[in-house]
Specification:
Blueprint lengths: L2 E4 L5 H13 L5 H11 L3 H6 L2 E5 L5 E10 L2 E9 L8 H16 L3 E6 L4 H6 L3 E7 L27 E6 L6 H7 L4 E4 L2 H6 L11 H6 L10 E5 L6 H11 L5 E3 L11 H6 L2 H8 L5 E3 L4 H7 L13 H13 L11 E4 L2 H13 L4 E5 L8 E4 L1 H6 L3 H6 L6 E5 L12 E8 L5 E12 L2 E7 L6 H20 L4 E9 L5 E7 L4 H16 L4 E9 L6 H18 L2 E6 L9 E8 L2 H16 L1 H4 L8
Parallel strand pairs: 4-5, 8-9, 8-11, 9-10
Antiparallel strand pairs: 1-2, 2-3, 3-4, 5-7, 6-7, 12-15, 13-14, 13-15, 16-17, 16-19, 17-18, 18-21, 19-20, 21-23, 22-23
Helix pairs in contact: 19-20
Length: about 625
C-alpha cells in the first residue's frame, strides 16, 4: 500500500538522488544531467519551504516526491519525480492528486506546471490543460531544465531544454456534493426495479429487465462510493475501469443479489442476508438508494410514509406546479393544461376533440420512467393511426393524462428539454444542484449534459427559481431525498414544467461525475450521459472490457474522459451501452461522443458479418 507523507529534512540528499535517477530515465546525456544538478538539488531547508511530500510503500521505501511551491492564489507544482522502477504504476498519479488536494486546502486557484516534454502526456491524462507547448528555456517558474517529471512514453522531438506549460484550477468538492453525503463515502443501493414496482403502473416493465440494467448507475449515486449493491452480476472489468477513471479505491461490489423476475426487491434481498445487512448498515456510512421504498425503510430503520412520494404522480405534480404559480413570482414559467381521463372512452373523447381542433397533445401514464407511457400526438399522427380510438387501444392499461403540447424549440433554436436537480437533506433543507439540458427523442429521455454554460442564459434564472420553489414545497410536505423538475421550452422563451421525479435520475448521475472529476482533475468539466449507445454486436465480457479500454484511450487522446455507465445492456439480443463522457469544451465533448458511438457500432466488423446485429 503506497501512502503519501511529508518529507523530512534528513532525507534531502536521498531525494536529490531519486530526482536525478528519474531524470536520467529518459536518456539524457551526462552533460545535460550535470548542468541540471544544481537546479534539481534538494537542500534540507527546501523540504519545508517547498512543501515536499514523498510517496512511500509498506516497507518504508520512498518511491517518488512532489513539491507545491508559492502562495495562493497562484502556486506551482515544482517537482514531481518517481523512481524509474515504478514509473507507470500509479505513484505519479497519487502524488499529483495529493498536490491538487493540498492546493485546494491552501486556497490555490491556479496551479502552474512547467513539465519536461516526456511528462506532457501524463499531465494531459491527469486533466491539466496545456497553456503553451515548447516553452523556451528559462521562461517557466521552475527554471530552464528542471520541470516536473512523470514518465509516460519514451521519445520526443522536443529538445531537453524546452518545457511544456500546463495549468490547473484546483477545486474542492462542490458544496452540494458535500451536503449530499456529509462529505464522505457512501453505500449505493441500486434498487431501481424495487422503486418502480411500488407504483403498479402498467406502463412499467413488469419483469423490470431494463430496471436491473439501470441499477448499474448505482456506481454514481455519490461522488465517492464505498460499496455498490446491485441486483444483477456486473463485469469485474467494468467496475475496475470506472474506479480508475474516477480515482476510486477500495470500492466493494456486492452483485447478483436479486437476479430473477418475481423475486424479492433488492432491499429485501439484502435483509435476507443478515451478515451483509449488518455490514452495510453498521459501517456508519449513509446508504443512498435510487429512490425511497418501504423495503428500504425496513432495511435502514428509516420511518416510511408512502405519501412522501405523492408527487411522483404526474397529475399531483401538475397540481403542485399550479399552486406554486398561483402565488406569483415566476413570470418565465407557463403551465400547460392537463386533463385526467379515468376511462379509455374519456381519453378518446378528449384526444379526438383536440385533434379536430388542430391541437397536438401529450398522452401520459400517471407513473412512467424515462418517457415510458408518454406519447406525443399531432393531429396528423392521430389520423395516420386511424383515429383516437386506435391510438388509445395500443397504449398500456390504466388511467391516462392528456396534456397540452408545448411547441418549441427554445429561443434561437436552442435546447427544448431542460431539468433542474436538487435534494432535500435529512434536516429538511433544500439544496440546489443545478440545471441540465436533456436529450429527448419523441417524448423519451435519451441523455443529458451538465456543466457551466450548458443551460442557455435566458432560462437560468426562471429554471432555478421555480426548481427551488418546488424543493421548498417538497421539504414542507416531508419529502427527504433527491428530486428533479423537468421542463419544456417554448419558442417565446418560457419554460413549462412537466413532471417531478422523486429519485435519482440520469442527469443526477452526470452531476455526480462532474463533481468528482472537478475535484480530481481541476474545475470546469462538462459531462454528458448517453442513455443507450448502440453496439454493433453482442460482446463476451472480455471483449467488452477491451472495447471500453479502447474507448477510454481514444477519448483521452482528445482531452476527454470516457466512463462506461451501464455495461450489462451489452449482453442483450439488441446490445447497447450506457456511457458518460466528460470534457472542458462542447467541441471536445461532441467529438468524444461521436468517437464512442462510432467505436461501439463498429464492433460487429471485428467478428465478421455473421456476428453483427441485423
Amino acid at each position: 500500500m503506497v501512502k503519501v507523507r511529508a518529507a523530512r529534512a534528513d532525507e534531502a540528499e536521498g531525494l536529490t538522488a531519486l530526482v536525478m535517477r528519474s531524470k536520467a530515465y529518459w536518456g539524457y546525456d551526462a552533460g545535460f544531467l550535470a548542468a541540471c544538478a544544481g537546479e534539481l538539488r534538494i537542500r534540507p531547508d527546501d523540504v519545508t519551504a517547498r512543501r515536499i511530500v514523498v510517496a512511500e510503500d509498506g516497507r518504508g521505501s520512498v518511491l517518488g516526491l512532489a513539491s507545491l511551491e508559492g502562495a495562493p492564489p497562484r502556486a506551482a507544482l515544482g517537482l514531481l519525480f518517481v523512481e524509474p522502477a515504478v514509473i507507470g504504476q500509479g505513484v505519479g498519479r497519487l502524488l499529483y492528486r495529493d498536490a491538487l488536494r493540498r492546493a485546494v486546502e491552501l486556497g490555490v486557484r491556479e496551479l502552474v506546471i512547467d513539465a519536461d516534454p516526456h511528462a506532457a502526456g501524463f499531465y494531459r491524462a491527469m486533466g491539466a490543460v496545456g497553456a503553451s507547448d515548447g516553452r523556451a528555456d528559462g521562461s517557466g517558474d521552475n527554471g530552464s531544465r528542471r520541470g516536473t517529471e512523470q514518465g509516460t512514453e519514451r521519445g520526443t522531438e522536443r529538445g531537453p531544454d524546452r518545457l511544456v506549460r500546463f495549468e490547473v484550477a484546483p477545486a474542492p468538492l462542490a458544496g452540494w456534493a458535500r451536503a449530499w453525503t456529509g462529505g464522505g463515502r457512501a453505500v449505493h443501493l441500486g434498487n431501481v426495479a424495487e422503486f418502480n414496482a411500488q407504483f403498479a403502473d402498467a406502463s412499467l416493465d413488469r419483469e423490470q429487465r431494463d430496471a436491473h440494467h439501470y441499477a448499474c448507475l448505482a456506481a454514481f449515486y455519490s461522488p465517492d462510493p464505498a460499496a455498490l449493491v446491485l441486483p444483477r452480476a456486473v463485469p469485474r472489468g467494468w467496475s475496475e475501469l470506472v474506479g480508475r477513471q474516477l480515482g476510486w479505491s477500495g470500492v466493494e461490489v456486492y452483485d447478483g443479489l436479486a437476479e430473477g423476475p418475481g423475486g424479492p426487491g433488492l432491499s429485501d434481498a439484502v435483509r435476507a442476508r443478515p451478515a451483509l445487512a449488518a455490514l452495510l448498515t453498521g459501517a456508519g456510512l449513509p446508504l443512498v438508494p435510487w429512490g425511497l421504498t418501504r423495503p428500504f425503510g425496513r432495511l435502514t430503520g428509516r420511518p416510511w410514509q408512502a405519501r412522501e412520494l405523492r408527487y411522483e404522480s404526474k397529475s399531483a405534480a401538475h397540481g403542485l406546479f399550479g399552486r406554486i404559480l398561483a402565488g406569483g413570482g415566476h413570470p418565465g414559467i407557463v403551465l400547460p393544461a392537463q386533463w385526467r381521463a379515468d376511462t379509455r372512452r374519456a381519453a378518446i373523447r378528449i384526444l379526438s376533440a383536440r385533434a379536430e381542433a388542430g391541437e397536438s397533445s401529450v398522452l401520459k401514464s400517471e407513473h412512467g420512467v424515462g418517457g415510458s407511457g408518454t406519447t406525443v400526438l399531432t393531429p396528423a399522427r392521430v389520423r395516420a393511426a386511424g383515429g383516437a380510438r386506435a391510438v388509445v387501444r395500443r397504449l398500456p392499461r390504466g388511467p391516462l393524462l392528456v396534456e397540452e403540447y408545448v411547441s418549441g424549440p427554445g429561443p434561437d433554436g436552442g435546447p427544448r428539454d431542460l431539468t433542474y436537480d436538487g435534494f432535500v437533506d435529512g434536516a429538511g433543507r433544500p439544496h440546489e444542484v443545478g440545471g441540465a439540458v436533456m436529450d429527448v427523442e419523441d417524448g423519451c429521455y435519451a441523455g443529458a449534459t451538465v456543466g457551466h454554460g450548458v443551460v442557455p442564459g435566458w432560462a437560468e434564472k426562471p429554471l432555478a427559481a421555480f426548481g427551488a420553489a418546488v424543493g421548498r414545497e417538497l421539504a414542507a410536505c416531508g419529502y427527504r431525498g433527491w428530486f428533479d423538475v423537468d421542463f419544456v421550452a417554448d419558442g417565446a422563451g418560457r419554460l413549462a414544467p412537466t413532471e417531478t421525479n422523486l429519485r435519482l435520475t440520469g442527469p443526477s448521475i452526470a452531476f455526480m461525475v462532474a463533481a468528482r472529476l472537478d475535484a480530481l482533475r481541476g474545475a470546469g468539466h462538462l459531462v454528458r450521459i448517453a442513455d443507450r449507445v448502440e453496439l454493433g454486436a453482442r460482446l463476451p465480457e472480455a471483449q467488452l472490457d477491451e472495447l471500453c479500454a479502447d474507448l477510454a484511450r481514444g477519448c483521452a487522446a482528445l482531452g476527454a474522459v470516457f466512463v462506461p455507465a451501464i455495461p450489462t445492456g451489452a449482453f442483450e439480443p439488441a446490445p447497447w451501452l450506457g456511457v458518460l463522457v466528460a470534457a472542458r469544451s462542447t467541441e471536445v465533448l461532441d467529438a468524444a461522443e461521436a468517437l464512442v458511438r462510432a467505436g461501439a457500432l463498429a464492433v460487429g466488423t471485428v467478428f465478421g458479418p455473421s456476428a453483427a446485429r441485423p
